[in-house]
Design goal:
- The complex is a heterodimer of chains A (111) and B (113).
- Chain A has 111 residues and is mainly β.
- Chain A has no helices and eleven strands.
- Chain A is 0% helix and 55% strand.
- Chain A starts with a strand and ends with a strand.
- Chain B is mainly β and 113 residues long.
- In chain B, strands 2, 4, 5, 6, 9, 10 and 11 form a seven-stranded mixed beta sheet that branches. Chain B has a four-stranded antiparallel beta sheet with strand order 1-3-8-7, with no helix packed on it.
- In chain B, a hairpin with a 2-residue loop joins β7 and β8.
- The chains are: A mainly beta (111), B mainly beta (113).
- Chains A and B meet through β4, β5 and β9 of A and β9 and β10 of B.
């Protein structure tokens, strides 16, 4: 069974710190990797996608992918209270356009 | 960016009522749409995969006669919760995809009294 695992939370960091969110996946055939942010009571919002090994930066967000080790991470630099949300890791294996989601980790940024 | 519209955003109705939720991709043609359900403080649960012009594929444990899905065009899918009961109260979210990634609608909060 294809699985996506995320660190159990919640994660709490002070404002201005770096938040590091990790995710591992079981299917070596996975092709695409996504991070979604979900605020309480809202639907998920795509914040990062990564398709090849290495780092991808977008503003304060950096996604890192290591296919050999089967992990993908999200770094949030200069964390802000507005970053407080649940972050979902999602993996696409190429079957039926389905994404496999992790359970999510709740991040709390303390002012 | 890709926009997915979901309507209505909130429904409150009596037990036994059937409720229809619409999901539209506004600026792209979605080859596939997905319907998810999310209970409070829990993760997304995929209910079904919907492809235009064909029958939806339901996940294990999801009653296809209870949750009717119609995908009439490449931009519209509907989910009808038939004879809804209080245990069907949840946050229902659709997503649409052409090429990855999936883009989510704003969700529908369904409350059955």
């Amino acid at each position: 069974q294809k699985e996506v695992e995320q660190n159990s939370g919640p994660l709490s960091v002070p404002e201005g710190a770096i938040a590091s969110l990790n995710c591992t996946y079981s299917d070596r055939g996975s092709q695409s990797f996504f991070w979604y942010r979900q605020y309480s009571g809202k639907s998920p919002e795509l914040i990062m996608s990564i398709y090849s090994n290495g780092d991808k930066e977008d503003g304060r967000f950096t996604a890192q992918l290591n296919k050999a080790s089967q992990y993908v991470s999200l770094l949030i630099r200069d964390s802000q209270p507005s970053d407080s949300a649940t972050y979902l890791c999602a993996v696409y294996t190429g079957a039926n356009s389905k994404l496999t989601f992790g359970k999510g980790i709740t991040l709390s940024v303390r002012p | 960016g890709a926009v997915v519209s979901q309507h209505p955003s909130r429904v409150i109705c009596k037990s036994g009522t059937s409720v229809k939720i619409e999901c539209r991709s506004l600026d792209f043609q979605a080859t596939t749409m997905f319907w998810y359900r999310q209970f409070p403080k829990q993760s997304l649960m995929l209910m079904a995969t919907s492809n235009e012009g064909s029958k939806a594929t339901y996940e294990q444990g999801v009653e296809k006669d209870k949750f009717l899905i119609n995908h009439a065009s490449l931009t519209l899918s509907t989910l009808t919760v038939t004879s809804a009961h209080p245990e069907d109260s949840s946050f229902y979210i659709c997503s649409a995809v052409s090429n990855q990634p999936q883009h989510f609608g704003d969700g529908t909060r369904l409350s059955i009294l």
